[in-house]
Design brief:
Radius of gyration of chain A: 57 Å
Structural class of chain A: alpha+beta
Low-confidence stretches of chain A: 1-10
Distance between the termini of chain B: 201 Å
Oligomer: heterodimer
Shape of chain B: rod-shaped
Order of helices and strands of chain B: HEEEEEEEEHHHHEHHEH
Structural class of chain B: alpha+beta
Helix content of chain A: 40-55%
Mean pLDDT of chain A: 86
Largest sheet of chain A: 4 strands, antiparallel
Helix content of chain B: 40-55%
Number of helices of chain B: 8
Shape of chain A: rod-shaped
Distance between the termini of chain A: 174 Å
Largest sheet of chain B: 4 strands, antiparallel
Strand content of chain B: 15-25%
């Protein structure tokens, strides 16, 4: 102190640093202590506090105090949903997500229950439910989730036929996977909760893909062929029905015609006959003569031969007679 | 002069800190510790986390993980009981239960993983070679859900006696026998990946292709069958419709003809002679024309007056 006072006003070059170094050191120490005492927890985290490396408490989001140096804080994102990808990797997520080009055959090729091979890609989403277990029970929880996911998926796919996995079984596989995976991870006390397991792409291996497509094509061909036949049926049958109606109508027309004509003819005959009965002989003659009157002019060649004449044929040249 | 007085104090503080640092140590929540004195273990392993004391300099802290640890095997090629070559990749979880024994027998995690490689690999091999592939792939006796594409693979039938879960348990059991002497406990062993070796895979692919082709062929023939069936139905319908129409038309015509005949008979029967007279005259009108040559004798009813005014 005396040293400081002595230098006051005299403006010794070393007196000012001396004073400032002292305050500076105190300041720095204060700042260090403050930084080591206060800590803040983000809204999606909790703080796990260890005193001398031993777990003592968990703190919620906000600004908190801890014993400097003796206590340390580990922040765990308990609200965050983590995602693991299997059989593929997203390089860059976005509107047009970019995926890593292949190379995950080891991960996504698996045997189905009918000893066929399927390519299964899926995602597992989880969150940390119990940060204490998460930190202190299992080392490398993420790797554990990956290992068990792969193992469980193969176990589930191995109990299904390839067709089932490719078509109807997708949702069921996802649900069972979530259940089983959670069960196993719980026995390990990983402290995580599986929120979603989703099958992304399930395909036959590339080498056999075309033959699977062929089946689809054949299935469509079948439908097309049958449809075409139905079409032809529908084209021909209604027409035939119409034509049948026509035939019947024509027959009906014929019937009406025939009966009416018969009735007409009969009526005519009866009418004539009625009159004829009144004067038989003269009517007979009249009808006869009228007929001859009508037909004789039309006849080209007429010969009238005496009734006594015998052997008329030599007189005629019948071959020319018609002309 | 003040600085010279401070030097001994600083030295004492530094020395004190060094001694304190050698005496005090912390055990992490995730760790357990064995204290050794010149390499010789002293007392029981300490598993309680927190601040602890030891004799500085001569005692050493050896800390080990308390948590579950991962073991990941290398894929190995193994034949199954039915002589199918497959790649098997296993994964396991283990932990150090007796750090003292662990320290004495293997020393560290790296060596321990090596030991586990041998033990688990051999257990895996034993179990795989004593089961057929179908048992290794299936997990339960669950029956496949039938789909419209279902194909029955002849070897994928029959009861599942063990299944993968049980075989995994068996591997765990067998491997577990070998680890306690290292102070290790095996918690779980699972088959992570299992796949055909490359050559077998090609064969399986060929089989899958053949199966699909069979299904495709089946669809096509079903299509043709359906088509033929419809065409047959069409042909039958056509014949039925046409013939029924013909039948009905003929019936109608027949009835009409019959009716007409009845009507004609009813009328003409009144005077058959007059009918034939009339009809004959009518026929004359229709049949005699300019090509006709008519030869009549003079005693015909028409010309008889040519010869005499009053023929007999």
């Amino acid at each position: 102190m005396a040293y400081d006072e002595e230098g006051k006003g005299v403006n010794f070059p070393e007196s000012i640093p001396g004073k400032w170094i002292g305050w500076g050191v105190v300041g720095i120490i204060l700042i260090i202590i403050l930084v080591a005492t206060f800590y803040s927890i983000g809204p999606e985290e909790v703080g796990v506090i260890k005193r001398w490396s031993r777990y003592v408490r968990t703190t919620e989001p906000g600004l908190h105090l801890k014993l400097p140096f003796a206590e340390s804080v580990t922040k765990v994102k308990v609200k965050h949903i983590f995602k693991e990808e299997f059989g593929f990797r997203t390089l860059q997520a976005g509107v047009k997500t970019i995926y890593a080009p292949g190379g995950f055959e080891e991960e996504n090729l698996m045997l189905t229950g009918d000893l066929n091979v399927a390519v299964v890609e899926w995602i597992v989403q989880y969150k940390i439910e119990n940060p204490i277990d998460y930190l202190f029970e299992v080392k490398d929880v993420e790797d554990t989730i990956r290992d068990i996911s792969e193992s469980t998926m193969r176990q589930i796919v191995g109990d299904r036929s390839v067709d089932e996995v490719l078509t109807v079984g997708r949702i069921e596989v996802g649900l069972e996977m979530q259940k089983k995976l959670q069960q196993i991870l719980d026995t390990y006390q990983t402290g995580v909760q599986i929120t979603t397991v989703k099958l992304k792409d399930v395909n036959p291996p590339n080498a056999v893909k075309s033959s699977f497509n062929e089946v689809n094509v054949a299935k469509q061909d079948k439908e097309t062929t049958i449809n075409q036949a139905e079409q032809e049926y529908n084209r021909v049958i209604p027409r035939a029905k119409g034509e049948a109606e026509k035939t019947i109508s024509q027959a009906e027309g014929y019937a009406v015609n025939r009966v009416n004509r018969a009735r007409g003819d009969a009526s005519k005959f009866l009418a004539v006959w009625k009159e004829y009965n009144k004067a038989r002989d003269v009517t007979r003659r009249r009808l006869y003569l009228e007929t001859l009157e009508e037909i004789l002019p039309k006849i080209g060649t007429k010969y009238i031969i005496d009734s006594e004449q015998k052997g008329i044929l030599p007189l005629l040249s019948l071959s020319e007679g018609g002309k | 002069m003040k600085i010279e007085r401070l030097i001994p104090i600083i030295v004492v503080i530094i020395l004190g800190l060094i001694i304190l640092g050698g005496t005090l140590y912390t055990i992490d929540q995730t760790e357990q510790v064995v204290i050794t004195q010149f390499g010789e273990p002293i007392g029981e392993p300490i598993t309680e986390p927190g601040l602890h004391f030891k004799i500085p300099f001569i005692q050493k802290v050896n800390s080990f993980e308390k948590r579950f640890l991962a073991w990941d095997g290398l894929p190995t090629q193994v034949p199954t009981k039915d002589k199918r070559y497959i790649w098997v990749d296993t994964t396991a979880r283990w932990r150090i239960v007796d750090p003292l024994k662990f320290l004495q027998t293997v020393g560290g995690e790296r060596t321990a993983l090596g030991r586990l490689d041998d033990i688990i690999d051999s257990a895996t091999r034993n179990q795989i070679t004593s089961h057929i592939l179908y048992e290794l792939v299936r997990d339960s006796e669950r029956e496949f859900v039938e789909t419209e594409l279902s194909i029955q693979v002849e070897e994928a039938v029959g009861k599942v006696k063990y299944g993968r879960e049980k075989i995994s348990r068996a591997i765990l059991e067998e491997a577990s026998e070998g680890v306690p002497r290292f102070g290790i406990e095996l918690i779980d062993v699972r088959i992570k990946r299992l796949n055909y070796v490359e050559q077998v895979r090609q064969g399986v692919y060929s089989r899958m292709i053949a199966e699909r082709k069979r299904v495709a062929e089946q669809y096509r023939s079903e299509g043709q069958g359906g088509k033929a069936e419809i065409e047959g139905r069409k042909e039958k319908e056509l014949q039925r419709i046409t013939s029924e129409a013909y039948k009905k038309a003929q019936e109608i015509k027949g009835e009409a003809d019959a009716e007409a005949t009845g009507i004609y008979a009813g009328a003409y029967n009144k005077d058959p002679e007059f009918y034939s007279f009339l009809k004959t005259l009518e026929t004359y009108k229709e049949t005699l024309d300019e090509d006709t040559t008519l030869i009549l004798t003079s005693d015909s009813d028409f010309y008889k007056y040519l010869k005499s005014l009053s023929p007999r």
